[in-house]
Amino acid sequence: MVSAAAEFAESGLAGTRLEAIAASAGVSHPRVVQMFGSKRALFLDVVAWIFERVTDAFAAATAAHQAESGPLLVALGDAYRRLLQRDRVVALVMLHAYAASGDATVRDEVAARYLALQHTVADATGADAMGVRTFFATGLLVTVSSALALPGKRTDAQWGAWVLELVTPAVTRER
């Protein structure tokens, strides 16, 4: 899965060749086809694996939070940021998953995983709809910042909150 994730992170669903994944994994192209059936099926398995890694990071942060003080949403955001800092492939695959959602099968699978992640956060934290929305908006900023390898503090939750605060007055004026 790691080899496929790295290849998809680099080139996305459309640009990645199964031959490149096979070579990276040290197996034959026919073996990859035998195991996964199609490039899209393998991509969806990689996307599922990436979303599971995020879910696992949130579960670990929730368990660790029992002994800490402060908002659980902040702990989840910190866990997500640390995951992306350790492995930029997570951010890149997530962005490629959203980009490949022109394909209805990909869209349905990615939407289901994204909504499940939102429910996980809402259930774990008890946050209201605006809190969950803000959390995921900040998370998207962190994802993009990580994918772009922006330096240092550009990937922290405080920066994401600052950007969202800049947008809030404009949104309020439009109403």
UniProtKB/TrEMBL annotation:
GO molecular function: DNA-binding transcription factor activity; transcription cis-regulatory region binding
Database matches in InterPro entries: Homeodomain-like_sf, HTH-type_TetR-like_transc_reg, HTH_TetR
HTH tetR-type domain location: 1-54
UniProt keyword annotation of Lipoprotein present: no
The entry's DNA-binding region: 17-36
Highest taxon of source: Bacteria
Record key words, sorted: DNA-binding
SUPFAM superfamilies reported in the protein's UniProt record: Homeodomain-like
Protein name: TetR family transcriptional regulator
Organism in which the protein naturally occurs: Mycolicibacterium aromaticivorans JS19b1 = JCM 16368
